[in-house]
Specification:
mainly alpha; 2 strands; two-stranded parallel sheet; 8 helices
Length: 280
């Protein structure tokens, strides 16, 4: 009850603060951390690797569970044939394996397990980078409040114009490009891009995306034309191979017929179809 009262007081003060800031024209923005993370290539690749580990861990647990179930089934079927001591030994063995499986689950998926630790390790560097960028944006553009839309803050309405996720993401991409620069030309290009305003950078990004889409469309069209062309060539090749094999077969039959005559045998009667089988 006391906690609820303190929460109500805190919310009241927060509302009063918002009201006061609104009267003086407070500037409020927000980010979507989930969207930012999903748009960072390094995070996506690391997440893919982590997902692979999770699948292997689940497979290990499933295998252990099946082994335990089979042991329980075997014990149930053989119980009437076993002594009390053997039954107790089997049950103790099953209990040990069950405890090992539970420990394995906790070590992998528990609150302090490998999954939670590796997720924190995966997210922490990007979160730190986002935090620093948000601080810089807030100072440069005079924001009073910047929230995380994907966090536990209840956001009943959020105008898109206040979303600075793209600005944060562009800053992350710029930082990554600076690390990848290896030549003076690339360094100049990065510096020119960084000198653009957010609006200019967004316009350039849109143009680059449009060019990339057109390039992908051209490549897809070229791939389709190549597929059709290769298909036609394959049909012609098979037809040529069929005709060639047929001619070689006719030639071989004639040679066999001539050889047979020379060896004193009677030549086969030609039925007129060119295959030398005498109508058989």
């Amino acid at each position: 009850m006391k906690t609820l009262k303190l929460l109500s007081i805190s919310l009241a003060f927060l509302c009063i603060s918002f009201a006061a800031d609104a009267q003086r024209g407070a500037r409020i923005g927000y980010i979507d951390m989930e969207y930012i993370l999903e748009s960072v290539p390094e995070y996506k690749e690391a997440q893919k690797q982590l997902d692979g580990k999770v699948q292997r861990w689940k497979a290990d647990i499933e295998k252990k569970s099946q082994e335990i179930d089979q042991m329980k089934l075997n014990l149930a079927n053989e119980r009437v044939l076993l002594t009390t001591e053997l039954i107790e030994e089997r049950e103790e063995e099953i209990k040990i394996l069950e405890d090992e499986m539970i420990k394995y689950q906790q070590d992998r998926f528990g609150p302090n397990g490998d999954l939670m630790i590796q997720r924190r390790q995966l997210v922490q560097p990007i979160q730190d980078q986002v935090f620093n960028i948000v601080q810089e944006i807030a100072e440069n553009k005079k924001y009073d409040f910047i929230f995380d839309k994907s966090a536990d803050v209840v956001m009943l309405f959020a105008a898109k114009r206040n979303d600075i996720s793209e600005t944060v993401l562009r800053s992350i991409n710029r930082s990554n490009k600076r690390k990848e620069v290896t030549s003076r030309k690339e360094k100049r290009e990065v510096e020119q891009r960084e000198s653009l305003s957010d609006e200019e950078d967004e316009a350039v990004t849109e143009r680059e995306k449009a060019l990339e889409d057109k390039k992908n469309e051209r490549e897809a069209a070229m791939a389709e034309r190549k597929r059709v062309r290769d298909s036609i060539r394959e049909v012609k090749r098979l037809e040529f191979q069929r005709r060639r094999d047929s001619l070689l077969d006719v030639r071989k039959r004639r040679q066999d017929s001539i050889r047979n005559v020379r060896n004193g045998g009677a030549p086969p009667v030609d039925d007129g179809d060119g295959d030398g089988d005498g109508g058989k």
